[in-house]
Amino acid sequence: MTDADIYRQFTWPVRVYWEDTDAGGVVYHTGYLRFMERARSEWLRAVGVQQAELREQQGVMFVLCAAQIDFRRAARLDDLLEVCCTVTERKRASLCFRQEVRDAAGVLVSGVIRVACVDARTFRPQAIPAGLLPLICISE
Amino acid sequence: MTDADIYRQFTWPVRVYWEDTDAGGVVYHTGYLRFMERARSEWLRAVGVQQAELREQQGVMFVLCAAQIDFRRAARLDDLLEVCCTVTERKRASLCFRQEVRDAAGVLVSGVIRVACVDARTFRPQAIPAGLLPLICISE
Amino acid sequence: MTDADIYRQFTWPVRVYWEDTDAGGVVYHTGYLRFMERARSEWLRAVGVQQAELREQQGVMFVLCAAQIDFRRAARLDDLLEVCCTVTERKRASLCFRQEVRDAAGVLVSGVIRVACVDARTFRPQAIPAGLLPLICISE
Amino acid sequence: MTDADIYRQFTWPVRVYWEDTDAGGVVYHTGYLRFMERARSEWLRAVGVQQAELREQQGVMFVLCAAQIDFRRAARLDDLLEVCCTVTERKRASLCFRQEVRDAAGVLVSGVIRVACVDARTFRPQAIPAGLLPLICISE
After folding, report:
1. Which has the closest alpha carbon to C133: C48, C63, C39, C59?
2. For chain B, does the N or the C end have fewer beta carbons within 10 angstroms?
3. Residue B21: C-alpha distances to residues B76, C7, C28, C58, D22 (Å)
4. B3-135: which CATH topology?
5. pLDDT of chain A along its 140 residues, tens only?
6. Interface contact C41-B76, CB threshold 8 A
7. What is the 3-state secondary structure (H, E, C) of chain C?
8. Residue D77 distance to chain B (closest CA, Å)
9. CB environment A31-63: b (16+ within 10 A), e (fewer)
10. Which of A30, A66, A68 is the closest to B34 by Cβ?
11. Which chain A residues contact residue D78 at CB under 8 A?
12. Marked catalytic residue, from B3, B5, B20, B22
């Protein structure tokens, strides 16, 4: 498995704590979106990008444009999940991800997430820094 | 304006607090989903449904099946927003909502949310209680 | 009741939503701290201070230094609570609040909260802006 | 180092994500309390206790009674923290913890947390299950 493969199929483990659950006894729906962002953040870190640095040194950050989420099955307290993150599209100023939250029995939640690169002050679209582009592998 | 109209175009005010913001200086993306759920909960309350009672007395609750969210513009600390909630589809065991989060200048975030009525223990789909259906008006 | 009295005994209503609860069926413990901060923010707004403006125009903000919280009884989904907020101490660069979260049956959670006024960039202690001090009434 | 030592000085790593921060550019204050609970949950898991099982099989759970927190220095996006958790008192139906959130430069936040063992339905105090007590080592 090459580095490129790792970045194509990035996976991050997430444990469910009390903070993630609601009175229905399961993970509150926004929990899965937070878990997905942790995986995107860790994927960025794995390809060598620190978001805090990106913001301070290059003045840009990534923000959500659109999210399409399917909630199939709920996770519960103490569950150990894995969240995967695959880049499916790379444009000048935006990226599209396919993401899944899974447990041992299969997919719980899946999503398509579009993020834009924006100026950290004005929130106007900004080209993804040139140094970052080659680090981002697209999955077919 | 009749009662039916009120329920067709339900709107709920939301103030942005520190807890809702992130280091980007704006509302963290899951905040808008929480605001949308507050509006759905208050709409249910307005049509006469207490969700805690629904669960204890009828053994059912509503859970998210799918969410499709567009993030156009970000809200900031101290902003006063309004969140609207319109039922666009009413099936035997699910409802579909069109929702918007707005400020004085227009729409910030819009979404299509599908919720299912499920058994509170098994999470299996359950018919929406008969007494509830006539309270739910569909918007064309 | 004079304006001064209002500010001495400031109270803010809070409704409990799904987002606030956990799998124990009650409000997750950090919820009460968020509710207390909403009351402090609304108290500041009531005495004429917008925190976003305070930060942009004067370069200062309030941050938590210490919190001492007693959790006596838990709130549940749909509960309507009131959160009160009384200033018990006013120093050059900090304020101390006594706060309570109550329902119709009495106090659920009580706390003593100390906040410091800090420079918004360096987080170094900063004198509370002179224009703000006269607005803050101390309760005996 | 024996097993007992491990449980006396339990430490858990926590990464700061966007979800944890606020518009002040730092971790929102309730984040540290959530981090502390993650460490307590992982400490329980390390001594062999699954909280979900504890609740289903023995009908008890741990809830917060009191928290005393000192916020000295703030964590920021991307920071890698460690959260430690030491039992300082073990009574029939409650435990007291001393906890710290640290980065490489020292302590950011420290706290004393008291949790009670309660009946999961009535929230009445309940003796800590006999099988659990020997697993809990007290630090002097």
Report:
1. C48
2. C
3. 7, 26, 19, 20, 5
4. Thiol Ester Dehydrase; Chain A (3.10.129)
5. 455 554 568 999 999 999 999 999 999 999 999 999 999 999 999 988 989 999 999 999 999 999 999 999 999 999 999 999 999 999 999 999 999 999 999 999 999 999 999 999 999 999 999 888 888 877 75
6. no
7. CCHHHHHHCEEEEEECCHHHECCCCCECHHHHHHHHHHHHHHHHHHCCCCHHHHHHHHCEEEEEEEEEEEECCCCCCCCEEEEEEEEEEECCCEEEEEEEEEECCEEEEEEEEEEEEEECCCCCECCCCCCCHHHCCCCC
8. 8
9. bbbbbbbbbbbbbbeebebebbebbeebebbbb
10. A30
11. 45, 50-53
12. B22
Domain boundaries, chain C: 3-135
Q: How far apart are CA A39 and CA D24, in angstroms?
A: 24
CA distance linking residue B39 with residue C17, whole number of Å: 10
Residues of D in contact with B30 (CB under 8 A): 19
Say whether pTM exceeds 0.90: yes
Best residue of D70, D94, D117 to probe chain C, by most C CBs closer than 10 Å? D70
* Chain C environment of D68 (Cβ under 8 Å): 66-69
Per the document, the length of chain C is 140
Burial string for B108-124 (b: 16+ CB within 10 Å, else e) reads bbbbbbbbbbbebeebe
